[in-house]
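Recap for those who missed Tuesday's class. We walked through two folding examples back to back. For each one, the amino acid string is listed first and its predicted structure tokens come directly after. Nothing is annotated here on purpose, so try labeling regions yourself before you check the end of the notes.
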Amino acid sequence: MSTSRAMDATGAEDTAPNTMMETDLNAVDNNKQDRVNNMNSVEPVKIEIIWSIVLFFVFGHLSAIYGLYLMFTSTKLLTTFYGICSWILSGLGVTAGLHRLWSHKSYKAKLPLRFILMLMSTMAFENHIYEWCMDHRIHHKYTDTNSDPHNAKRGFFFSHIGWLVVRRHPDYYDKCLKIDMSDLKKDPIVMYQKKFYIPLLLLFCFIIPTIVPVYFWDETYVNAFFTSTMLRYIFTLNMTWLVNSAAHIWGKRPYDESINPSENLSVSLGALGEGWHNYHHVFPWDYKAAELGNYRANLTTAFIDFFSLIGWAYDMKVVSNDMVLKRANRTGDGSHPDGSHPDGDGIWGWDDSNISIEDRKLTTVINKKDD
């Protein structure tokens, strides 16, 4: 998740060796060691607090607490329901849009759906698409190292919110110049939002959510602003942040026990399906972001599947059961019905050059179409 300073980067690709064949264990080990050597610099961690962002989050959380109080004392029930619907819409903008579509390219979306997801993600106000995805791709390539913007090894508070209120580690800026962002630079929806992000976020995150209850059912401005706007906004932020913090600390690791990301049902409920995090870090190109045969705690998958029925979502990548079981057996912690043992990959999504040919061949693409 990202709510930080906007920063451009070149489209140059990472120069790490592209040796990630599942069947070549020596190559996997070599690649893992190469990543460890390059990701943990001797540059000491320096804490430089950005007080303007601290004040913004303090005001935001105090406003949300007041909104919660108003929700139980004076806010109309319809306003509360509207706030919940706004949370789901903005959350899906993050999960189905920023995360699974633009960061990982786990499926493709036609222009109308991309435009809708852009507006929904703008309502969430977690930074514009381009930088959110750059942060997230770096997070996957260099998970829990100094290059990772929300390195969970620096503690729960840092990975939850602290990373947003301090200057980034120098290793992060180095990786910004190397991570491949060329696909997003070619997307007109992404570039449009990046250019007009401030007026768009003011309109869709704060102004419209406040005006709608006042105009349509005579809610007070105070109730509308603090309940349907600020409480909804801060709640959405924290649900996203829990994926960075709680889902990197607590839970089982059935697919790869050597990495911190974990399977966490509670986070999945709050983050609309993004808490199956050990699976997701091992198979980030799977559009379900989970090994689930249904929509249990994964509303985002149901959302994408709905739009696939009308043809707006297509080329949805799915990892086969054979590939999942093979990986669980080789690197999991044993909590999967068939899994155990350690070895991590660093892959940001579908077009990452480190995906092996074997993994590509074993990936199923649903509703495939030619662009």
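Example two. Treat it independently of the first, because the proteins are unrelated.
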Amino acid sequence: MADTTQSFFGTPAVAIITGASKGIGRAIAIEFARRFSEGLLLVLTGRSEKDLQETASLIKADSSFLSSKMTVRCVVGDLQNQATIQNLIERLFENIDPSQYQHAILVNNAASTGDVSKYVRDFGLNDVKELQDYVFLNVNCPLILVSKFLSIFSSTIPDTSEKGPSKITIIQLSSNAALVPIKGWSMYCTGKAARAALHKIIAAEEPNVRVLSYSPGPVATDMLRYSRDNTRDPDTSRMTRNSYERSVQPIETVTVMCQVLEEDKYESGAHVSFTDIVGPPKNG
């Protein structure tokens, strides 16, 4: 059941956000910084140090932040690099004392589209490494991150009598492609469907954790531009171009996501879509 005793943004919190160097991840970081009123540790990760630092600069330059007790930490790394993933995850969680926070949040945002220029019949043995890398980033990494996150922010800190956060939330950025087959997007649809299933399982296994799969709708990001310019299937290409023309800015969909989190009426593990809440974006 939803916890109505506390505001989502009203207690000291730690929020770990992947893919925070641009787009939706950056918008989530900025909006969380604006909304949390009792202190916030933002741990941001992405591949580009320059872009991560830009996200941090935008946060620190915003005079609308409610809390002076905010810390932003940037951890540069590639979640798709299997050789360095263990070190990256350790750095994400280092020097965090769970007993200092009442709310722990993990945002599984980092993702990729995969190859949108091929039908299923076009893939072959030469594509095995590309397929493995795609699954690692889009499915395995969220699983590994959630496992590490839960091991740290459990209700009782291991080997001590100290309590961890009373509220734990896991958010994954999903897509309607998790639910609908889209020609030419076999990698993307499969990855999103697997992520949605994974987070449903997490919700079933962890009844004290709030889990949300949020589909942001068509958003003006590099990923949507890439899909618009590289999709092979003519029907999907028309759909993607139309989606881009009707796309919203990242902050618009993140604002709606924050409203969903604050209202806290969703069933844990549910797949909630921006367009289900506000309707499809109108043609510009």
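Answers for example two:
The mean pLDDT is 91.
The first helix runs from residue 23 to 35.
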